[in-house]
Amino acid sequence: MEWWLSLVLIFGSMFILFSIGLPIAFAFLSINIIGVIFLWNGSSGLNQLVLNMFNSISTFSLLPIPMFILMGEIMFRTGLGLKVFETIGKWMGKVPGRLSIVTVGSGTLFAVLSGSSVASTSLLGSLLVPDMQKRGYSHSMSVGPILGSAGLASMIPPTALGVLLASLASIPVGHFLVAIVLPGIILAFLFLFYIIIRCSLQPHLAPSYEVEDIPLVEKITDTIKYILPLSIVIFLLLGFIIFGIATPTQSAVLGAVGTLLLSFFYGGFSWAKIWDSLTGAFRSSVMILMIIIGSTTFGQLLSYTGITQGLVQLLNGLEFHPIVILILIQILLLMLGCFMEPLSIMMITLPVLMPIANTMGYDPLWFGVIILLNMQIATITPPFGMDLFAIKGVMPKNSITMTEIYIAVLPFLLLNLLLMVILVVFPSVSLWLPSLMK
Amino acid sequence: MTKRIVAIFHSLLTLMGVLGKLTIVMISLLILLEVISLKLFNYSFNWVLELTEYLLVFLTLFGAAWLLRQDGHIRFDLLINRFNVKNQVIFGIINSIIGFLISITITISGFITSWGLFQRGVKTETMLQLPRSLLIVIIPIGFLFLAIQFSLNIIAGAKKLRAKDLAKVTEDI
Questions:
Q1: Which pLDDT value is given to residue A268?
Q2: What's the CA gap between B127 and B53, in Å, rounded?
């Protein structure tokens, strides 16, 4: 069978299965089972599929996923994360767009914890937007920051999505987590500056309101009490990876233990909360790992049917400049993000994209960072980005139109794209920190 | 009788959920032990790496059916949510049938694969040299639970369809 016919058949069936609401893991498994029965000689193919399923997740590089999620869960459920944001809020006083900035911070935290930008967007949309609108905040300063923060979350370690991408693309996980630090910080500052500048120029977008006057001593005490220890934990976590003292998995476990100890000292610790954190970490980990199990043989099927080689040859034959190919890939991913979760996009596209990146001579680390950023941008890209519908779904009826959501998200989308341009033009933004690693 | 069997199955799922959470604790403790031993006493437990890798598979398969019961597996539902309740139930049944067929296929081939490995006495080519069949068998076990949960979802969907007022049917099978 021609490779393009296989491509249409495989991807067409997959999208039909996705569309009827079959869980992603089982949609992949359906294709794989049919594929191995026809291509790999029936029952022996199925035996190989079972073995592949086991091998796909019995991998050390995936171990940080449950550990990072556990760390985030403990931080969230014991109230440590909230205390950090309250302290930041105290420092901000009457900064223009105060609530929008807090929203970006909270959004990032929730998105990191939930592992799903749609879930985070839905939760924050229902929790924060009503209060912001009550205080006269416009859509662009309430809905916009929530949608923007979803992209930021994937660029801030610990990010389960980042670990997964690195693992699937055979990039060292530690190097990858370090590579996204600088882009993540740049994006956070871009959001911060944008909110402050826009709210200063157009104060009606985020009217200032009476903020309780907090004494300086309280601000400093809270900073030392809540921000400093947690910052040390996160700094050590990254520091250990950068200086080769510990593997990402070991760092993740140490981070979880550190967070647990902090919650104990701050009175947020209880066995019930720890059990809830374990439940949350278990739930998110199973969600992610089941998709990996499901899609295990997918890459091999693409290769076996000649799809991977066909696409690589096709792109080579076009004789475009590698940057043009890179832009085409980003456009394709943006389109996929209109109707799929980042996790699923990665599982479908990475088996094809990494060989293409290799042929084009891209640095895999640099390429991976761009792909990761793109995955999240895709979910907030009008007209069909999934997060846009998620926020529309949780907002009170008739309170906002889709067009207003598009307008609100546009500046944040542009800032994400600006970061992507920065990454493409200055590869050292993502490659410099990893180059310092042992 | 049927209700009793379903209740026992749900208790088993809850137990698997507890086991899965304890697996995360065990992975954390093993890695912590490895870090302390390596950094403080310069001694490495080489088997920790291998064991934690296997535990990751057990963690996932312990949770697969547990998560399905909570309807927690990631899926694309923006399109489905736009359908009316009846069509949503119909698609739910179709999905559960596909899920059941997939799960039962993997259960059967998984048990055959495990049995083959057991008969041939295949061991892992690693430090621990564990019987491969003992490790692989978690896949058919996990998928057997998935198959049962999918079949319960089919029954629940069919009951919903038969009910005159779909909204009133909240029975959780």
A1: 76
A2: 13
- By three-state DSSP, how is residue B131 classified? strand
In this prediction, residue A117 has a pLDDT band, given cuts at 50, 70 and 90, of low
Q: Which helix (H) or strand (E) holds A328?
A: helix A322-336
For residue A66, the chain B residue with the least C-alpha distance is: B24
C-alpha angle A99/A78/A237, rounded to 5°? 85
Decide if A15 touches B, using CB distance below 8 A: no
- Residue ranges making up the domain that contains A131: 3-435
Mutant choice from A18, A30, A58, A341 vs B, greatest count of B C-beta within 10 A? A58
CA triple B156-B161-B163, angle to 5 deg: 95
* Cβ under 8 Å to B: A residues 192-251: 246, 249-250
Q: A113 pLDDT band (50/70/90 cuts)? A: low
* pLDDT exceeds cutoff 80 at A116: no
What is d(CA A343, CA A119) in angstroms, rounded to the nearest whole number? 13
pTM: 0.81
DSSP label at A226?
A: I
Residue A22 near chain B (CB below 8 Å): yes
Q: How far is CA A33 from CA A39, A248, A366, in A?
A: 10, 34, 34
Facing residue for A24 by CB, picked from B53, B54, B74? B74
* List of chain B residues with pLDDT < 50: 169-173
In this structure, what are the phi and psi dihedrals at residue B123, rounded to the nearest 5 degrees? -115, 160
Q: Nearest by CB to B109, from A46, A279, A344: name it.
A: A46
Q: Helices marked H in A2-79 — which ranges? A: 3-19, 24-39, 43-57, 64-77
| Number of folded domains that form chain A | 1
What is the torsional sign of CA B6, B91, A27, A339?
Answer: negative
Candidate from A17, A33, A116 with C-beta closest to B105: A33
pLDDT digits (tens, 9 = 90+) for A279-327: 988 998 898 889 888 887 887 888 888 888 888 888 777 777 888 888 8
Pair of tokens at residue A346: 């990665």
Cβ B63–A67 below 8 Å, yes or no?
Answer: no
Tens-digit pLDDT profile for residues A387-422? 787 787 777 767 788 888 889 999 999 999 999 999
The residue in chain A having the minimum alpha-carbon distance to the alpha carbon of residue B93 is: A22
In angstroms, the CA B56 to CA A289 distance is 9
